[in-house]
Specification:
- The protein has one domain.
- Helices cover 44% and strands 17% of the residues.
- The protein has eight helices and six strands, in the order H-H-H-H-E-E-E-H-H-H-E-H-E-E.
- Helix 8 links the parallel strand 4 and strand 5.
- Helix 2 packs antiparallel against helix 4.
């Protein structure tokens, strides 16, 4: 496993900035992740764009988009070609508050740990807070309502609080509903649109 060089990072950014079919982009990011290994994928500075590319590809596939690409520059993070139009998106991850995923991989691959049902319930209870925090990161940038927001919800409770979590999406995203053209949540390989 290896860290990416500046040249490799530039090469990957260039490839991901071209219009691609969603499956091709997902395969590309998976290959880069396999090359790097999880330790470097989650700990190397300057490769966050790869996680955005993964979320963009997954989302594009679920929406039935023909093509997807990352956008070089300040914003938006990515664009989709869908039904003859281009849609622009900002992307943000919502994770368990305080979690530092990179620390979980610092000494190599993720260690298998006991994960009792009580922890699933605790994670589920933290979903609204995690979404509000993710939304807050994007609200500070004051978008004009033309760009849409994709929230990748990276919390799993193995289905025991599915309905409760889904019902929390509108309230957790309410502060952003007037700042973005639409809000989407990607969770467990499904796409949700809490507003509109």
């Amino acid at each position: 496993m290896t860290r990416l060089t500046k040249t490799e990072i530039a090469t990957h950014k260039t490839w991901l900035a071209a219009w691609r079919e969603p499956a091709a982009m997902a395969q590309y990011v998976d290959a880069v992740n396999d090359h790097m290994g999880s330790k470097d994928f989650f700990n190397q500075a300057g490769v966050e764009f790869l996680r955005d590319a993964w979320a963009a590809a997954e989302f594009a596939g679920k929406r039935g988009a023909r093509q997807v690409r990352l956008v070089a520059g300040q914003w938006p993070d990515f664009e989709l070609r869908l039904d003859g139009r281009v849609e622009q998106f900002e992307c943000v991850e919502a994770d368990t508050p305080g979690r530092r995923r990179g620390d979980e991989y610092r000494d190599g691959e993720l260690a298998v740990e006991d994960d009792p049902v009580e922890d699933w319930c605790d994670r589920a209870a933290k979903v609204p807070e995690a979404i509000r925090a993710a939304v807050g990161k994007k609200l500070t940038k004051h978008y004009d309502g033309k760009v849409q927001l994709l929230i990748y919800l990276n919390i799993n409770e193995f289905g025991i609080r599915q309905k409760e979590i889904e019902s929390a999406f509108p309230e957790a995203t309410a502060k952003a509903k007037d700042q973005f053209g639409a809000i989407w949540i990607l969770w467990k390989a499904r796409v949700y649109r809490p507003w509109g």
